[in-house]
Amino acid sequence: MYLINLSDRIAKVMMVFAALWAFGLSFLIVADALSRSFLNFPLNGTKDIVENSIVIIIFLQAGYAIRSRSMLQSDILLSRLPLKIKKIMLLIGYLLGMFFFYVMISGSWDIAIQAFVEGEYEGEGALKVPTWPTRFMIIIGSVFCFLNYIVLAITDVFGIEDKEGF
């Protein structure tokens, strides 16, 4: 199914991008630590960049975690249930996941628009980090997580085969 394959590709690309972002961020942190230790000169804005980057990295990885079934699930309980009850329990879990990310999307939309329009930033001094990219990444990541719960419902509950697998 096209939606399943598209979801898999997007999840993997977002995960790789998150890994590269974290890798690059580690160099910034090391550079800041070394400049503080040896030069007594901190790199301005490192704290604010790291704070915003962690949120972005988490929302880039969340879709992959959901799609690869790495989110918390009580497998010991599910494995002991009859197939019909298991599917009902999975559907309830997926609907709760979709509801959670729907709330995230609807609750974040106005805040993200406001941050973009008003030019909201974090940090003081030489480097001010804009917050709107982080706020929009929360929305984008939440939309993708919502869609991945739909994909899991299609594959697990309704039995449509995931041909390539994840």
TrEMBL record:
UniProt topology in membrane: Multi-pass membrane protein
UniProt entry keywords in alphabetical sequence: Cell inner membrane, Cell membrane, Membrane, Transmembrane, Transmembrane helix, Transport
Subcellular location: Cell inner membrane
Transmembrane segments: 49-67, 88-116, 136-160
Molecular function GO terms recorded: transmembrane transporter activity
InterPro entries given in the database record: DctQ, TRAP_DctQ
Domain Tripartite ATP-independent periplasmic transporters DctQ component: 27-157
GO cellular component term, pick one: plasma membrane
Source species, domain of life: Bacteria
Gene Ontology annotations of biological process type: C4-dicarboxylate transport
Pfam families: DctQ
Function: Part of the tripartite ATP-independent periplasmic (TRAP) transport system.
The protein's assembly and partners: The complex comprises the extracytoplasmic solute receptor protein and the two transmembrane proteins.
Family classification: Belongs to the TRAP transporter small permease family.
Protein name (record): TRAP transporter small permease protein
Organism: PS1 clade bacterium
